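DATA SHEET
Item: assembly model
Revision: 1
Owner: S.N.
Input lines:
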Amino acid sequence: MTTGETATTGLRERKKQRTRQALSDAAIALFLEHGFDRVSVADVAAAADVSKPTLFRYFPAKEDLALHRIADHQGEAARVVRDRPDGRSPLAALRAHFHARLDAHDPVTGLSDHPGVRAFHDMLYTTPSLLARLVRYASRDEELLAEALGGPAPVARLAAAQIVTVHQRLAQENWRKLVSGRPVTDVLPEAHADADLAYDLLGTGLDGHFEG
Amino acid sequence: MTTGETATTGLRERKKQRTRQALSDAAIALFLEHGFDRVSVADVAAAADVSKPTLFRYFPAKEDLALHRIADHQGEAARVVRDRPDGRSPLAALRAHFHARLDAHDPVTGLSDHPGVRAFHDMLYTTPSLLARLVRYASRDEELLAEALGGPAPVARLAAAQIVTVHQRLAQENWRKLVSGRPVTDVLPEAHADADLAYDLLGTGLDGHFEG
DNA sequence: GAAAGAATTGTTACTCGGTTGCACTTTTGG
DNA sequence: CCAAAAGTGCAACCGAGTAACAATTCTTTC
């Protein structure tokens, strides 16, 4: 019996956590320094002092070495909808949450000060295979959101698809503005405005915007 | 200076066309028979009587062997918007076009009788790497559509993203119904109804559908 | 605390997608 | 007919990912 409550983590379990962490850290450091596809998985494995097969026992693909942190965010939209206060619509909850994430400079919004995070985003948006993997994560997110939205399945699925897509585009737009060299403080107000625009569009539809 | 107009195909050019066709045909036949990832590019090259490097001179990646026909459809949404009759809104034009494609059992709608096309769709939707490639094609489509829509860039981009996404989901839903064994004639009316629902949603927004 | 048992790891070797360098053949243009 | 250009095949290579099996490390049980 060891001390305390935190459940006996078990030595083996702790070692696995450490290996996983070492792999992730080594990978991200190397990727940011040399670029995703100029670093081989063998390099990463060597840097973390494990063999290549072991690396793949922890991360099913090279892309996951870079993305697993994002992957852990999965189901966030669904959670926001599920945990919204009584009387608030899902859309309103999501809008508020996105604004909050914006103010927190959350990486998922595409806005971010830290040079490390910036470099990470640059890598993300300029590496096709990472983008592809991100899409797969997003589609899982979409499923969960559709479920959380409830209502008739076709409507919920369409709505979820639109919402997830819009989030992606908002983040992409923010990133684009940062890439052009503008400081975050300058872009933030526009990001809020874009988000409002996007949610207005989601809420009231495209109909007044593109007439004959 | 080459000879005049587009006329003289040139022997060399004709040979290239034939090689390209042979590769595509061999690839699709093999993929449909054995499954995309149980066929190696070496197999395809051998079946088309070319070497592996030559194959990659024609198709930049294995996925393109399966998808280049779809790729050729690119910019269709943008074209529909650009060529719409006077006084008709882009959304109305796209809606009408989608219904027409549905009646034509166009593969892009996910509906289709031909067993060959059905098998192709099954392969598409169950092979992650193909889906990923498809997403990349779609994002090009989205760009072109945004351009065709005109208006303020942020709005156009958001609208284009939503429209493209909705098309994908409609096609996916149709395919899902076919997979469950139902005949096309049975699914078609629902497909039209889903399309109308989706376009209504796009036009008038999500706002009445998910209240507090 | 030691032995039986399970889980994890390293090594080696392999498959497959994709690329490179170079020699060889074919088409083209004069 | 000849030379430049374009296209091809060959062989060797790189990197991602997997399989087999032996060696090691943790857990469990007595």
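QC remark: Chain B touches chain A through 38 residues (CB under 8 Å).
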